[in-house]
Amino acid sequence: MDLFDTTQLALQRASQGVSLRQRTIAENLANANTAGYRRRDVEFKGALSDAMAGGKSALEAVTFSPEMDRTAPLRGDGSNVDMDKEQSTMAQVGLEYDALVQIMKTRMQIMRTAITGQ
Fold first, then answer.
1. Within-domain flag for 75
2. Which superkingdom heads the taxonomic lineage of this protein's source (predicted)?
3. In a domain, 13, yes or no
4. β-bridge partners, 91
5. What's the CA gap between 32 and 82, in Å, rounded?
6. What is the Cα–Cα distance from 89 to 42, expressed in whole angstroms?
7. Which of 21, 32, 65, 80 counts the highest number of beta carbons within 10 A?
8. CA 92 to CA 71: how far, in whole Å?
9. Structural contact between residues 6 and 58, judged by C-beta atoms closer than 8 angstroms
10. pLDDT at 40 over 60
11. Is residue 104 in some structural domain?
12. Which domain holds residue 82?
């Protein structure tokens, strides 16, 4: 019997995906004025959802990676980073990360209570 269930593993993978997305958005912001730079993003929710359907082994194997956004309109300098959108997305991703941390914390408190009776 595993101490951590697939939900806990899914939460860990989700936090990894959110963290990678935060770093990727930070790179976009850092390169906003770099001519020719193309924004990147991490779409982890679909991969995570598919992995959850496949069970623990699929969750353990799921990976996320930044991908170039080819849909955003290019500016005159060849870049497609929109500072306002990136900052808005960064705020949203920060809230997602905070929510995941709170859920994991609550689950750990429940486990601690079940083990210790306190």
1. yes
2. Bacteria
3. yes
4. none
5. 7
6. 12
7. 21
8. 20
9. no
10. yes
11. yes
12. 6-116
